[in-house]
Amino acid sequence: MASSAVIPVSEYLQTTYRPDRDYVDGELKARNVGEQPHAHVQIIVGGIFRQMRLEWGVRPLTEQRVQVGPTRYRIPDICVLRNTDPKDAIVAFPPMLCIEILSADQALRDVRDRVDDYIAMGVKNNWVIDPWKRLGYYAGADGFTAIQDGLLKIHGTPIEISLSGVFAELDES
Q: For the segment 37-92, what is each residue's pLDDT rounded down to a tens digit?
């Protein structure tokens, strides 16, 4: 739930929320988390990036605050930085990739504002994974494009993740 009172940025940055909240122009915004399929896909995909971090030259982070604008902070389910990116407490530059994982009651339109914020800050690669419908999407300024070949990729890099592999691992538990 969103808070109705306007909260200063400084207060947001000095407060620990459980779970953490997005901050959008003075308002706290709840994030959808807490279901096993969501959490499991998050750890599976994060684990792939962690395992491949040296080969791919990346640093995956979960639940990382990203400053997408002067008064806007989003917390992607997973953000992937380049190994050469700064290690600041809060990411204030465009990550290589932001990943959102849908919860049971979410639709693509529910993450549109989040993706728009990532795009506005300069994030060129945005993925959305739906563990309920077993689908993946590229998210861009002109909308969502369903993955046709079953592979989430970042073009021009060796980064490639098989959606069927992610969902097979999800089914193992």
A: 999 999 999 999 999 999 999 999 999 999 999 999 999 999 999 999 999 999 99
**CATH number corresponding to 34-172:** 3.90.1570.10
Grouping H, G, I as helix, E, B as strand and the rest as coil, residue 28 is strand
Our measurement of the distance from residue 32's CA atom to the centroid of its chain's CA atoms, rounded to an integer in Å, reads 12
Who's near 146: CB < 8 A, 6+ residues apart?
135, 136, 137
Show me where the domains of the chain are located.
34-172
DSSP bridge partners of 160? 153
Q: How far apart are CA 46 and CA 6, in angstroms?
A: 33
Q: Supply angle C-alpha 91, 44, 142, rounded to 5.
A: 60
C-alpha to C-alpha distance for 109 and 86, rounded to whole angstroms: 32
Per the structure block, which two tokens stand in for 82?
Answer: 């380049």
pLDDT, tens digit, 9 for 90 and up, residues 13-40: 999 998 899 999 999 998 877 689 999 9
- 38 contacts: CB under 8 Å, gap ≥ 6: 32, 77, 101, 102, 103, 104, 131
